[in-house]
Amino acid sequence: MDYIYIIIIVILAIMSGILYKFGLNKGLEKGNKEFIEKLKSEKEQLKMEIEIAKREKDEIIRNAEKEAENIVKSALIESKEEIQKMKEEFNRELKLEKEEIKSMEERLIRREEMIDRKEQNLEELKNKVDREKEEIQKLKEELENKLYEIANLTMEEAREKVLNEAREKYELELAQKYKSIKEEYEEDAKKHAQWVVSIAVQRYASDVTSEITTATVPLPTDDMKGRIIGREGRNIRAFEKMTGCDLIIDDTPEVVVISGFNPLRREIAKRTLEALVADGRIHPARIEEVYEKTKKELEDIIKEAGKEAVMRVGIKPLHPELVKLLGRLKFRTSYGQDVLEHSIEVANFAGLMASELGLNVELARRAALLHDIGKAIDHEVEGSHAVVGGQIAKRYNERLEVVNAIQYHHNEVDPMTPEAVIVGAADAVSAARPGARRETLENYIRRIEQLEEIAKSFRHVDKAYAIQAGRELRVIVQPDKIDDALADKLARDISAKIEEIMEYPGVIKVTVIREKRSVAYAS
């Protein structure tokens, strides 16, 4: 404001000078003076107002500063109180955590002390056991030496004598215990098992085996024999070399016999010879041509046989390679029994028994049909047919339960499922049923003799007889040496030894007979 008034005054002064210079009259100067005076008075008034405004401004600023200072002071006081509260809360939490940590440390220390005490106790106990073992060993050695000195026997003889005395002392007690356990736990299981097997056998009927190791081919005339032999025997030599079977041409009219132990090769040879006889052209080149053609035809027959087996059993489809291997079983035999028909029979038995017991019928049938698949592999593959069959099934993505059942059916692995046990039982039923298998006379006699020798190897056995084609073994014991309880135990021991030593189809029944006759004469 002061600057504005000064500028106005300067402007007026300049104007006054200009007017004065140009000869303005003194009246104008007077007016200017009055105006200047007026301006001065207004200036003074303005200065006073400005001074008043400054004082008001300073007062307002001082009041504002005081108010701001009061607000800041109150805010600081509140902040200090809040900070103090937070500090106190933090101190309380810190104190609690310190106390908890301290208690944990105390617990850990107590636990470590407890562990140390246990380790010390264990060490003391171990030392005590070691000392007792040493004392027992010394006592044992002293007793053995004393027994040796008293009995004047070698250590081995003395040990054998002590063992025999203990065996004779506790044998009766063990036999009685065995008899009670057997009667308690086996009676119901035996009845139920017999019922299931009998139901399965009655519901399934199969033909008697008729497989042999030779095949006959009828001829239209006896002149055909000479053509089969060929000049200097070249045709028959070529035929036998190609097929791997023997050709028997004898005096039997209008018949040629093909002999071979491999049923597949024998079948190929038979079909080849039938085709050659029907065609009439017989020479080495023609034999080779017909043989290759027959071999390919038989492969198709094998596939169809495998598919038919799967359809007859009624299971889900198999891998094509498994179907082919299954078809090859049609030309494999076991004790004269067709292995494919045997497998189908086992699958049906297993399905019937699984159904009676409420188990998985599909799993039982599938595993039973494939249980002898290992027999379709040639002898170059090492291992039993059960193990090899399980490996083949596993290779073609069969379930682990199926693989286990295949490998178990001859007790070579432990069973994983009840269905595996059923497969083994069905295999035994199929092999043991009347007419299922044929045995050579030599094998039959050897098995009968071995059964009787096993029974006679036990103490107090007087006589032993194998009857019913080796299905039952009757053992006659000395009645004054064995009572009823020991007779039960002897029957079990003989059956266990038969299972350990012999290989046989089906089940062998062991019967121990104890009969005592007391005779007196009155005269």
Characteristic terms for this protein:
single chain; 523 residues; mainly alpha; 3-stranded antiparallel β-sheet; 3-stranded mixed β-sheet; 15 helices
Count the strands? 8
Structural class by helix and strand composition: mainly alpha
- First CA to last CA: what distance? 177 Å
Return residue spans where pLDDT drops below 50 for at least 5 consecutive residues. Answer: 201-205, 207-211
Biggest sheet, open or closed, and with what strands and sense?
3 strands, antiparallel
Structure description:
It is a single chain. Helices cover 70% and strands 7% of the residues. It contains 15 helices and eight strands. A three-stranded antiparallel beta sheet has the order 1-3-2. It has a three-stranded mixed beta sheet with strand order 6-7-8, with helices on one face. A two-stranded antiparallel ribbon has the order 4-5. Helix 3 packs across helix 15 and helix 11 runs antiparallel to helix 12. The longest helix has 126 residues. It starts with a helix and ends in a 10-residue tail after the last strand.
List the helices and strands and how they pair.
Blueprint: H1 2-21, H2 26-151, H3 155-203, E1 214-218, H4 223-229, H5 234-243, E2 246-248, E3 255-259, H6 263-279, H7 284-313, H8 320-328, E4 333-334, E5 337-338, H9 339-357, H10 361-369, H11 385-395, H12 400-408, H13 418-432, H14 441-456, E6 461-467, E7 472-477, H15 484-501, E8 509-513
Parallel strand pairs: 7-8
Antiparallel strand pairs: 1-3, 2-3, 4-5, 6-7
Helix pairs in contact: 1-2, 3-9, 3-15, 5-7, 6-7, 7-8, 7-9, 9-10, 9-13, 10-12, 10-13, 11-12, 12-13
